[in-house]
Amino acid sequence: MQQTALTVHQTARPHGFPTAADFAFVESPLRVPEAGSALVENLYWSVDPYHREMMDDLPGGFALHAPLEGRALGRVVASRTPRLTEGEVVFHRKGWRTLAVVTPEEIRRLPRFDGVPLTAYLSVLGGTGLTAYVGLTRIARLQEGEDLFVSAAAGGVGTATGRFARLLGAGRLVGSTGTKAKADRLTREVGYDAVFDHHEGPAVELLAKAAPSGIDVFVDHVGGEQLAAAVGALRDFGRIVRIGTISQYNTPTRSVPRFDHADIVEKSLRMEGFLVRNYLDVQDELYEFAVPHLQSGRLALDETVVDGFEHIVDAFLGMLRGRNSGKTIVRNPAPS
Ligand SMILES: NC(=O)c1ccc[n+]([C@@H]2O[C@H](COP(=O)([O-])OP(=O)(O)OC[C@H]3O[C@@H](n4cnc5c(N)ncnc54)[C@H](OP(=O)(O)O)[C@@H]3O)[C@@H](O)[C@H]2O)c1
Question: What InterPro entries does the entry give (predicted)?
Fold first, then answer.
């Protein structure tokens, strides 16, 4: 009998916010593992804002009516290669499906650290945490005592940025998010000093109130109005770390707010963007930095874990709408 996997296909290109109607769950035939490959049962899936970018008709974007791909952790359940052992848990990119066939070249082995849960390899120790760590150490080159503003501070990268910045000795930590409840949680639990809800007025006013004496570093996940406000609030030799532009992903035709270009010169500002995939060599340094803090309890996990592969599309759409707090992860509650 041929085995199948439940997969998610994109069935239409969205205009604006995607909806559940742009996706379909499809029973897809599974290639029987050939010699040199292994069958993996997925345990955890990552849903990410870059998936929204891949839904558009762009080079390298998702193909319609084909299983989607994304980051996942899975357990090897059958192996036809000595390089993959049945029972081991691996990281790979064949997500958005229940089962996947992988080769040793397509997986990454996870170092296992005592007391560190598996979800951490998709959140604070995964691409999310690596993005935050690279942003602070390689792009901002954060110095002790410097004051930061972080947009989308309650999300996966935003919470990791806040917690890492505290551990690295940052000064005042200001954030923005989309609800008062999330703002309260950030100041109560994550270590932010002041957080505003970006719906409550012009960003320039909200930021001036939260950071009246200015900022040294802006870690930006949003772009738009908040970026323009931050340029005005930055002190001399300030840095803007451009990580993402989520305010544009679902509203591509909205005009981009202007800022005073002279500020960049007069205040000697530096604006630099980066893609985490170009910094994979920093992964071991992230483990060295973060794992002891996780084990001692100084670093906590911020995750929204949604149970059930059948909810993966809802989890993704909810994350785009800001229903998450920390990294959004989907869990297989009943692995075989
Ligand atoms: N450069 C890289 O290599 C790299 C790597 C990873 C992620 N990123 C980028 O980093 C950003 C955060 O990613 P993440 O994985 O941590 O996602 P996330 O922050 O966990 O989730 C997205 C969040 O964005 C906020 N948001 C949605 N629409 C918004 C809007 N119009 N204005 C302001 N905020 C909005 C929502 O939070 P609120 O409720 O707070 O509004 C939502 O929770 C994204 O832009 C992503 O593309 C870049």
Answer: ADH-like_C (IPR013149), ADH_N_2 (IPR041694), ER (IPR020843), GroES-like_sf (IPR011032), MDR_fam (IPR045010), NAD(P)-bd_dom_sf (IPR036291)
Which helix (H) or strand (E) is 107 found in, with range? strand 107-109
Does the model's pTM come out above 0.85? yes
Taking residues 56-74, report their average pLDDT: 96
Fold topology of 4-123+301-331? Quinone Oxidoreductase; Chain A, domain 1 (3.90.180)
To test ligand 1's pocket by mutation, which of 56, 123, 134, 157 has the most ligand atoms within 8 angstroms of CB? 157
Residue from 326, 334, 332 nearest 128 by CA: 326
CATH superfamily of 127-277: NAD(P)-binding Rossmann-like Domain (3.40.50.720)
Report pLDDT digits (tens) over 283-318: 999 999 999 999 999 999 999 999 999 999 999 999
Q: How far does residue 154's CA lie from ligand 1's centre (Å)?
A: 9
Smallest CA separation from ligand 1 atom 29, residue? 247
pLDDT in the model for residue 2: 63
